[in-house]
């Protein structure tokens, strides 16, 4: 179940969202293109990833910020940038360019700190924009709980694109992060699930002042949980239902 787009157009050009995507892509190309040998690649991670154990000892301050722009592979980058593309433009539209940039970074800080708290001695480096983007998703849930999000569903022999309310898509995503985070604590693992949870909660809380200025419950009453402007209407999907031949 993969979100591919929403029906919530932005009314201004999301320059900060574009810039964040560009920075992440450029850093990824540098990390996996220019750094050819193992030693330089490891040094790059040591300098710019977030290391809980190093942070616990009073170091690693740079990585607390720069980890948001590093990724562990192409699919890691592609998935994060897809989510930022879908949800970031609307949050930037509502907040404004500079406030959105600060919101994004604050969510990333919160995500890293929440990941650090349960296991401050961890020697597993944390990289990725997932925590900051989770904050974007948390804020989106508060402002647009019923905005339609198209998801791509692939199940062995058939696939479909279905519009689903954002509170279902994001709610399921959040529940999976909590479930996987508990499992990771019990079994060990390298995915920063608690960073996702921390970023999501931080983004939700940081968006409350904006939601209150919009009218809070009255804002929801006026919009019925949908965007406060006309939604985008996509043509009906022509993707066929593919059945297994007998």
Outline the structure in words.
The chain is mainly alpha-helical and 246 residues long. It has 10 helices and 3 strands, in the order E-H-H-H-H-H-H-H-E-E-H-H-H. The protein has helices at 15-34, 38-48, 52-56, 61-66, 74-95, 97-116, 130-143, 166-187, 193-213, 217-223; strands at residues 2-6, 148-155, 158-165. Strands 1-2-3 form a 3-stranded antiparallel sheet. A hairpin with a 2-residue loop joins strand 2 and strand 3 (158-165). The model is unreliable at 239-246 (pLDDT under 50).
Quick summary:
This protein has 246 residues and is mainly alpha-helical. The protein is built from 10 helices and 3 strands.
The side-by-side strand order for the widest beta sheet comes to 1-2-3
* Rg, Cα atoms, Å: 19 Å
- Distance between the amino and carboxyl termini: 27 Å
Silhouette: globular
Secondary structure: number of strands: 3
N-to-C order of helices and strands: EHHHHHHHEEHHH
Query: Unreliable runs, pLDDT <50, ≥5 residues?
Result: 239-246
Structural class: mainly alpha
Mean pLDDT: 84
Helix fraction?
A: 55-70%
Main beta sheet: 3 strands, antiparallel
